[in-house]
Design goal:
Structural class: alpha+beta
Number of helices: 6
Radius of gyration: 16 Å
Shape: globular
Strand content: 15-25%
Helix content: 25-40%
Strand order of the largest sheet: 10-9-8-7-4-3-11
Distance between the termini: 30 Å
Largest sheet: 7 strands, antiparallel
Number of strands: 11
């Protein structure tokens, strides 16, 4: 599949991975109309965010994959409706603080640095059962960040690509990811929260 293709007669080019997710999820990938200033992620988090994640949020906005996995996304600023990253930063900082506390008690079970520590895990989604999805931010190129998922003391490791991971979860090829989203083909694969 090429990097870009047209969907639903839209004139705007769409990334191939975004189009593949839309097709699997049975949704349109028109832009949400509330673009975030992604450049501000550098000042908010100290790092830029992966391009595929930004393209996904621009296409679909905030929401839940399957019945369980909710993406952390820029939140609308009160009064303006403009998406900003401050709320997500606060959630990521709280999760990082909790996991650093666990690491101080059980270092072998929590072998990572956690945001805002340099190269630490940065949270990008969480599931109903408490599972947390992170990017491992050691590489200076956000597109190269592997994904690490914490599921109650077990760590699951995946290669780079947020959208690739979501596609893999919807495809049913990975039992852990299938359970993580718990997608029922009779229900919506993507539920927007906007």
């Amino acid at each position: 599949m090429s990097d870009h293709q047209h969907l639903n007669g839209s004139e705007a080019a769409v990334r191939g991975d975004i189009a593949a997710f839309a097709q699997l999820a049975g949704v349109s990938c028109a832009t949400t109309g509330r673009a975030c200033d992604w450049e501000q992620s550098q000042s908010v988090f100290g790092v830029a965010l992966p391009e595929d994640y930004r393209a996904f949020v621009d296409a679909f906005g905030a929401g839940t994959v399957g019945d369980r996995l909710t993406l952390l996304t820029p939140w609308p600023e009160l009064g303006t409706g403009k998406p900003v990253l401050g709320g997500w930063r606060d959630v990521a900082a709280e999760i990082g603080s909790i996991l650093r506390g666990h690491r101080s008690k059980w270092p072998a079970e929590f072998p990572y640095a956690f945001h805002p520590e340099s190269g630490g895990l940065l949270n990008w989604a969480s599931a109903v059962g408490g599972e947390q999805c992170f990017w491992l931010t050691e590489d200076p190129d956000p597109s190269a960040w592997p994904i690490v998922i914490w599921d109650k003391a077990e760590w699951y490791h995946y290669g780079p690509g947020t959208v690739a991971l979501l596609i893999r979860a919807l495809s049913g090829d990975d039992p852990f990811l299938t359970e993580l989203i718990r997608f029922d083909p009779a229900s919506a694969a993507w539920t927007p929260s906007d």
